[in-house]
Specification:
CATH architecture of the largest domain: Sandwich
CATH superfamily of the largest domain: Exo-inulinase, domain 1
CATH topology of the largest domain: Jelly Rolls
Largest sheet: 9 strands, antiparallel
Radius of gyration: 46 Å
Distance between the termini: 106 Å
Oligomer: single chain
Structural class: mainly beta
Strand content: 35-45%
Length: 665
């Protein structure tokens, strides 16, 4: 076939016996132009009606158009492409092709850039367009290209006088261009209402953003076409307003005549849009925001859950409540769990009693922890579980449990137990067991903060933290669980696995502590203060600071020749309080004593001259009196015999003295 030749299927008829004279129709050479094949009718043809062969150059120019093909009893494709045809600078289109026998495709071979309309079964390869669809092919662009939904044209902006400086005296109109996050632009908005300034007035331009708008370029005119800056003031302004104070650059160049921005789309810099909607479980989760400035959020290089304010990622149960079932926050997996005397206890002897927390969901990277409050020798196994799910025969979890001699880590799948690892370890009341599972199935069991067991297993992929008590004698309490490294929630009860450091102080009720907690230490000195003796001795575990010493006598001294002294001392540095009234004190002080110091409260000097008027001669019982003493002890001692001797002479010493120490640990 020569260049420019038009061929119709009517030129040659296909015989009814199935032999076709229309195959091997042409071979391409340089510069050929192929045109129209229209109204092709075939029957019982076992080879393609059209075949394209040859070796055309890359500069091939041509147009091929196949239309209105109605195969009848046609067991093969109608068009065989036997060369790498990429359309060149021309085109290939195929339209209105009925279905072929045996669901054969309309063509075989590699076609790039084909346009397909109303074809029952397009070709077997990927490079074609089927109306607005691109089945089985990759859609690709480069450089500044992108795919998206075109950004809308903004409405006319509002204008008002603002400020004491602005553009030269004149009457102005303003417009805006909406910019997307990639720098693409909208068509320019309609002009604003005209506004007249006297040369000493600014113009405040305000607008309502369109979907996808990340900034605005403000354009201006003095009655003619709007012109827009490409840099400086007025160019890509974030927010909802711009003050024209005369410093903006408004060249004579017109705005872009075409819209290149996206309301939502994908480009070389990423994905943009007003919101992201995620679907799952028959529902959607829409993520959106309203911003007052440009923000940057970086996703950390960890596995976990992106939290929101209502997301609770930890749980705590101290078991302090009435006896009975463990409660609705728990799903029982095996047998039963009860509250018994403020402990969690299994219901079935020699069987696994397990459950998991169901009040909220957790990441598959999680932990569970509990305090063991009772053991039963080697018979019972209390502990904790992670990634727990299912009930009865489908119960599944990892666990870390102990008895009096051994600690175990196990995998339970569909109620079948596999021991992962174990080691000899003496169990004791007060043990804290903690099981963690990290990324990749890294399991770690801690006992009292130290690593006891480790294993790697990824057979269980999801579930919740829980607990296990094998047997019905052992107990535990103070259970906690949740995401590994949970986020704190101040309105949720928490169990801290690590010490917390409050460097700025802590307030309990109306009392604020900015240093170590303060405590009172009290000593009761009964009897008359007539000799040197020690009322109390305390050894400090940590360094302390004495901030005040107060001494209270039963009666105020009167007619004293020598006042008694109460002394606090470590043997080297004393704090002396002279008893000169009923209430006596040191005032605010700061006396430091080292850890391990032996602090004594004692009567420091000899016989005192503390006397008062005699009372009726009668035997007095000792006066029990103790204001809170450090260890909470009370000192109820009988009076010394010397006091009774003084009574007989009609004169007696003060009967008792109480000493209060205020200290910071």
């Amino acid at each position: 076939m020569q260049t420019g030749q038009q061929v119709s299927s009517r030129d040659q008829a296909a015989p009814s016996n199935g032999a076709s004279t229309l195959h091997d129709l042409f071979a391409l050479t340089d510069e050929q132009i192929l045109e129209l094949f229209k109204d092709i009718q075939t029957q019982n043809s076992f080879i393609p009606v059209l075949q394209m062969t040859g070796n055309p150059p890359g500069a091939f120019v041509g147009n091929i158009d196949i239309e209105d093909v109605t195969p009848a009893d046609f067991p093969t494709s109608i068009f065989a492409v036997l060369l790498p045809f990429n359309g060149g600078n021309g085109s290939f289109s195929i339209k209105q092709v009925s279905c072929l026998q045996g669901s054969n495709s309309a063509w075989n071979g590699w076609l790039a850039g084909a346009q397909v309309y109303d074809v029952c079964s397009p070709g077997q390869n990927r490079d074609y367009s089927n109306g607005p669809s691109f089945p089985n092919q990759t859609v690709m662009t480069n450089n500044t290209g992108g795919v998206g939904y075109q950004i809308n044209t903004p409405a006319a902006p509002g204008v008002s006088i603002s400020g004491g400086s602005g553009p030269a005296a004149n009457t102005y109109n303003y417009g805006i261009i909406a910019n997307d996050v990639f720098g693409g632009v909208s068509l320019i908005s309609p002009k604003s209402s005209p506004i007249t300034v006297n040369g000493s007035q600014g113009v405040l331009v305000t607008w309502t953003p369109v979907p996808g708008q990340a900034s605005a370029t403000v354009c201006r005119s003095t009655g003619g076409a709007l012109t827009c800056p490409t840099t400086g003031g007025g160019f890509q302004v974030t927010g909802l307003s711009f003050l024209d104070n005369g410093s903006g650059y408004f060249p004579s160049a017109p705005p872009s005549p075409t819209a290149t921005g996206f309301a939502a789309g994908a480009g070389s810099a990423g994905i943009e849009g007003q919101q992201i909607s995620l679907t799952g479980g028959g529902f959607k989760n829409t993520i959106s925001g309203a911003f007052t400035a440009n923000r940057t959020a970086t996703v950390p290089d960890v596995t976990g859950i992106v939290p929101v304010s209502s997301y609770v990622n930890s749980a705590y149960d101290n078991a302090t409540r009435s006896n009975g079932a463990i409660g609705s926050n728990w799903t029982i997996e095996q047998n039963g769990l009860n509250i018994a005397s403020n402990q969690i206890q299994g219901t079935t002897a020699a069987q696994s009693n397990s459950g998991f927390w169901n009040a909220n969901s957790f990441s598959p990277v999680q932990f569970a922890q509990a305090t063991i409050t009772a053991l039963n020798g080697a018979s019972d196994f209390p502990g904790v579980t992670v990634l727990a799910s299912g009930t009865g025969a489908s119960s599944t979890y990892y666990d870390c449990v102990e008895n009096s001699t051994t600690i175990f880590m196990q995998r339970v799948v569909n109620a079948g137990t596999t021991n992962l690892t174990s080691t000899a370890s003496t169990g004791a009341v007060g043990d804290i067991l903690r099981l963690e599972i990290g990324p990749g199935g890294a399991l770690t069991c801690y006992k009292n903060g130290a690593v006891a067991l480790t294993a790697a297993d990824s057979q269980i992929a999801s579930g919740s933290p829980g607990l296990l008590v094998s047997g019905n004698v052992a107990t535990e309490k103070n259970w906690s669980g949740g995401n590994l490294r949970p986020l704190g929630h101040l309105d949720v009860e928490q169990d801290w696995a690590k010490p917390q450091h409050f460097t700025q102080g802590v307030t309990f009720g109306t009392e604020t502590f900015t240093a170590s907690l303060r405590a009172e230490q009290n000593t009761f000195l009964p009897g008359a203060l007539t000799a040197t003796w020690t009322g109390a001795t305390r050894t400090t575990d940590k360094a302390v600071t004495i901030t005040r010493v107060q001494v209270q006598a039963k009666t105020a001294p009167a007619g004293c020749t020598t006042n008694a002294i109460v002394r606090l001392t470590d043997g080297t540095t004393p704090v002396n309080i002279t008893i000169s009234a009923a209430a006596n004190g040191s005032g605010a002080i700061s006396q430091n004593y080292a850890a391990g110091a032996s602090l004594q409260v004692l009567r420091a000097n000899g016989r005192s001259g503390l006397y008062h008027q005699p009372r009726r001669r009668q035997r007095h019982r000792p006066v029990p009196h103790a204001i809170r003493l450090g260890e909470g002890k009370r000192h109820d001692l009988r009076r010394r015999s010397s006091e009774l001797k003084q009574r007989k002479s009609g004169r007696r010493a003060t009967e008792w003295t109480s000493v209060i120490l205020l200290a910071d640990a």
